[in-house]
């Protein structure tokens, strides 16, 4: 007879999970459209009209992905009023950590003073933060973790061609972290997620790292840094008309009506996508919609926690409010959930 | 469902007015969406999606870049609806 597998860990009274705190890190350097236009053939008006962006933050050469992640994490930990050794797992969502291994998450764990925490990175591009929130919720509810730190962080300026007029104005740098922990009430609704892998090429890296392997980049002019590129029209179409029904499904799965939302915090991809999505969703006009992109640009995995922090700090939405989150991006991949704001 | 070129032009003109705020009367067959009507690439996607819905046709992403003039779009939709 096979051995009976038991779970002998003490049972927790709190069966659910919630976001306890949020912290953001915005690099100090503000880059205006005028400055961007010194590198690309464009205008302030064109950029504002196409993207809603007025300025963005670019990290400096000495500000790394992990530096930004740690700054955001420390803010979230201090607001949560816990100590870092209480964190069971560190999840970092990023596509711009420039090391294959070890992960960014292990360095974050080390630098926040908890080198024993489970730590791993996830690669789900602009959906990465919502993937992380879904994972953290399940880890806590499943008893595998007590407190989980979820960080979305990107230094996209390292991976895009800043001289490319179709993309150089759009992407930016930053980090946002949330501390997720046990709760006696349900603070995170079901995650509706998935992919559309047939459109993998819509946002991709131009070539494999292996293309750089044969020789020294400086000696071989045929070798190019494999930047991230995007088919703007195809992504716009997918993001608006395929993602609005996903947002609706997340609301339905959580039993929350759109009219009862206190905030809609979509990935800050482009203000035009957000506007069209709000229209496609038929979101009631009294629900505040984050437009953090205006002064942040598109920070991929970092955009939702940064937007969340900004909405809470400005008083646009109150702590404890109900918000719909949706992340979508390269893969193409997506995830959405309704959460109670910290 | 088959549509005549006149029906499609009238419907498309209404969509362009709705999406981009350009008077329907200036949406004529020989006009270029970008150069004459100032419809930008993202508004063009909105026009295409609305046209798909209105005329019950599919306009793939790869096709959108070939629709330079209003006439290109009208002809594509008429053919796709046959």
Write the layout of secondary structure elements.
The complex is a heterodimer of chains A (342) and B (82).
Chain A: E1 16-25, E2 30-32, H1 33-36, H2 44-51, E3 55-57, H3 65-80, E4 87-93, H4 104-111, E5 118-122, H5 128-141, E6 147-155, E7 173-183, E8 192-195, E9 203-205, E10 228-230, H6 232-254, E11 263-266, H7 271-281, H8 293-296, H9 303-314, E12 322-329, E13 333-340
Parallel strand pairs in A: 4-5, 4-6, 11-12
Antiparallel strand pairs in A: 1-7, 2-3, 6-7, 8-13, 9-10, 12-13
Chain B: H1 5-20, H2 41-55, H3 61-64, H4 70-80
Describe this structure in a few short sentences.
With 342 residues, chain A is α/β, with parallel strands linked by helices. Chain A has helices at 33-36, 44-51, 65-80, 104-111, 128-141, 232-254, 271-281, 293-296, 303-314, and strands at residues 16-25, 30-32, 55-57, 87-93, 118-122, 147-155, 173-183, 192-195, 203-205, 228-230, 263-266, 322-329, 333-340. With 82 residues, chain B is mostly helical.
Overview of this protein structure:
The complex is a heterodimer of chains A (342) and B (82). Chain A has 342 residues and is an alpha/beta fold. Chain A has helices at 33-36, 44-51, 65-80, 104-111, 128-141, 232-254, 271-281, 293-296, 303-314, and strands at residues 16-25, 30-32, 55-57, 87-93, 118-122, 147-155, 173-183, 192-195, 203-205, 228-230, 263-266, 322-329, 333-340. Chain A is built from 9 helices and 13 strands. Chain A is globular. In chain A, 50% of the residues are buried. The mean pLDDT of chain A is 94. Chain B has 82 residues and is mostly helical. Chain B has one domain: Non-ribosomal Peptide Synthetase Peptidyl Carrier Protein, Chain A (Orthogonal Bundle), CATH 1.10.1200. Chain B has 4 helices and no strands. Chain B has helices at residues 5-20, 41-55, 61-64, 70-80. The A-B interface holds A 49-50, 231-234, 236-237, 240-241, 270, 272, 276 and B 40-42, 44-46, 48-49, 61, 64-65.
């Amino acid at each position: 007879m096979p051995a009976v597998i038991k779970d002998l860990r003490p049972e927790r009274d709190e069966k659910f999970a919630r976001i306890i705190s949020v912290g953001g890190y915005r690099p100090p350097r503000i880059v205006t459209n005028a400055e961007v236009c010194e590198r690309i053939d464009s205008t302030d008006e064109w950029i504002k009209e196409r993207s809603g962006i007025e300025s963005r933050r670019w990290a400096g050469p000495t500000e790394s992905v992990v530096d930004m992640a740690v700054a955001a994490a420390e803010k979230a930990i201090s607001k949560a009023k816990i100590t870092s050794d209480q964190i069971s797992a560190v999840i970092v969502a990023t596509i711009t950590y420039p090391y294959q291994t070890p992960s960014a998450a292990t360095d974050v764990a080390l630098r926040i003073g908890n080198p024993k925490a489970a730590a791993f990175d996830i690669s789900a591009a602009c959906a990465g933060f919502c993937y992380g929130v879904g994972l953290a919720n399940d880890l806590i509810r499943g008893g595998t973790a007590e407190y989980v730190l979820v960080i979305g962080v990107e230094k996209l300026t390292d991976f895009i061609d800043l001289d490319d007029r179709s993309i150089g104005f759009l992407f930016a740098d930053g980090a946002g972290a949330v501390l997720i922990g046990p709760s006696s009430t349900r603070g995170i609704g079901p995650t509706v997620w998935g992919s559309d892998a047939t459109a993998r090429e819509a946002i991709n890296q131009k070539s494999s790292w292996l293309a750089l392997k044969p020789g020294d980049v400086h000696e071989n002019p045929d070798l190019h840094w494999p930047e991230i590129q995007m088919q703007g029209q195809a992504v716009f179409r997918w993001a608006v008309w395929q993602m609005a029904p996903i947002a609706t499904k997340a609301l339905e799965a959580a039993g929350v009506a759109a009219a009862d939302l206190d905030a809609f915090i979509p990935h800050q991809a482009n203000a035009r996508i957000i506007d069209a999505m709000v229209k496609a969703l038929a979101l009631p006009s009294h629900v505040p919609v984050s437009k953090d992109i205006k002064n942040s640009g598109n920070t991929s995995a970092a955009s939702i926690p940064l937007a969340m922090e900004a909405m809470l700090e400005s008083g646009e939405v109150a702590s404890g409010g109900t918000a719909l989150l949706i992340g979508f991006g390269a893969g193409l991949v997506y995830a959405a959930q309704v959460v109670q704001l910290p | 469902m088959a549509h005549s070129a006149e029906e499609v032009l009238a419907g498309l003109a209404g969509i362009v007015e709705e999406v981009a705020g350009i008077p329907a009367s200036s949406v004529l067959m020989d006009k270029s969406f970008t150069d004459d009507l100032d419809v930008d690439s993202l508004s063009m996607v909105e026009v295409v999606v609305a046209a798909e819905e209105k005329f019950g046709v599919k306009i793939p992403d790869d096709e959108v870049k070939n629709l330079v003039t209003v006439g290109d779009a009208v002809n594509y939709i008429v053919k796709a609806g046959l």
